[in-house]
Amino acid sequence: LTFSPNVKYDLISLGLVNTTGDHFIARFITTGPKMVFTYDGMKNGGLSIREIGETVKSHMSGQNPKLPRGYQVHGVFYRLQGGLEVQASFYSTCSKSLQEKYQVIVSASTPLTLCTLSYSAPKMEAMHPDDRTWLSAKKRALTTEYLTSTTEDSDIDMDSLSDSPESEEDTSKAQPWFSSSNTSDPPRSPPPPSDPDSAFDLKCRCGVSGDGNLYYSGSVEGDAIQCSLCDEWSHVACQRDGRGSGLKKNDKFYCDMCAAIQNSGRPIRRLSERKEMEARTSLNRPLQECLKPGRGALIKHGKYWYPVRVIQHVENGWQVKVWRECRFEEPGMVPGSFITVPFDCIIDSLWGKHAERRAIQLGIWTHACEIPDPEDILVDPSSTPYTQEIHIALSPECEVLQHLLDTPGLVPPSCVPAKEWKEEKKRAKAKPIDSILPTGSLSIIERAQVANWVDTNIGKTKKHRMEWLGEVLEAHALTILISSRLKNESKYK
453-470, pLDDT tens digit by residue? Predict the structure, then answer.
């Protein structure tokens, strides 16, 4: 991009990451006198430390700034000089570049106005909403689709319509065998026939929940599959032991929640441990049959092998997600990232294959059984301090929450929506699995923070915890927090 001479930047900070990719620190320049400080979380009492003998040139800028040992630059942050006038100039230049390079038009002329994007490629026209018959809510669709216009001269240079950005890297340079989604998108595969074309509900066991058109990316997360009972969608790669992969056209699939309902009351079919593991690992089968979305595998990085989960097959290998608790000896691999590995750098879990296991060297990682699960965190929330936001939201409701603990029968359901919901479930004789507290968008950590606040300010002692945990008191506290957040959103004001 070419900007006008009055567009200038100030370097203000660096984001640094260690070689294992599991710890970030910040280095920044103060306003006024140019001094360089480094912030490293709770180290040094949570305070930033000034670098002795520092200069911006030696510790921040240039090709080889002096960085803490074992750290490298992950991100660089700049401040645009000149105020609103220069911001508008910068915005205008970027908008024109989008239009010239990708035929994308930005509706707003200034950065102070919300904008929409439209496509202006030659001989392409937007479809009328009524023609998009596959959408269940045509008028509320957040996207627009384009078709080739029906003109006599229909010869279109499809290369000019490509929405793929040109590479700014020298492709002649040697590249690593893996490609991480932290730096570039993995290779795109054609959309599977099971993928939805209209608005759909995504509710996967990995925690992703909501409108699939907003939260689902097939090129990164692999195929999606719909539950035959509740009609909600899940990632195929998130299903245990690959049970969502390779299903036939008429095979039924049940998500974890519905599978529990389907199997309730049925006798448990018990297998020997060896037969169960043979079924789970496809023992004594070809590698290509062992590797399928949802299965575990091992990939090689350096001289060691590390665990991954298979996402999908791509042109030159497999797309996988690296186990988030891996501790890599060599740099270049980030725990929890999506990467693509070639066929010769991936093997199955080698269960029962003792000779093959002895022929490789396993790296270091924390096993899943050693990580606190959500139940552990929620049962003992005392180790999860609550935030000021939670304290401000819940404090005005102390009296109601105290009554829900001491005299819950005297609190009318009209004052506590969660109590009304609980009584409705009881009247409907809902199954236990249907009576699990709805928690909206709150994470496990946020729920533990709310429980800690109730423990500290309402329950007072741990012996009362089991009286309200998972009951109406907790549900009402979660409702209050969600409500306070919604009130702060402009569309609800």
Answer: 988 888 766 667 777 777
Ranking 56-70, 247-261, 315-329 by mean pLDDT, the lowest is: 247-261
Report DSSP letters for 7-36, one per residue.
--EEEEEEEEEETTSS-EEEEEE-SSS--E
Residues 6+ apart with CB under 8 A from 219: 185, 186, 187, 188, 189
482 CB burial (10 A radius; 0-12, 13-18, 19+): middle
Whole-number Å distance between alpha carbons of 13 and 38: 10
- Look over the chain and give the mean of its residue pLDDT values, rounded to a whole number: 76
Confidence check: pLDDT of 492 > 60 = no
Sign for the pseudo-dihedral over CA of 469, 470, 476, 482:
positive
Task: Concatenate the DSSP letters of all residues of 88-133 into one string.
Answer: HHHHHHHHHHHHHHH-EEES-SSTTS---EEE--TTEEEPPGGG-T
Under the phi-then-psi rule, with left for phi > 0, alpha for psi from -120 to 50, and beta for the rest, what region is 352?
left
What are the tokens at 376? 């552990």
**Which pLDDT value is given to residue 250?**
83
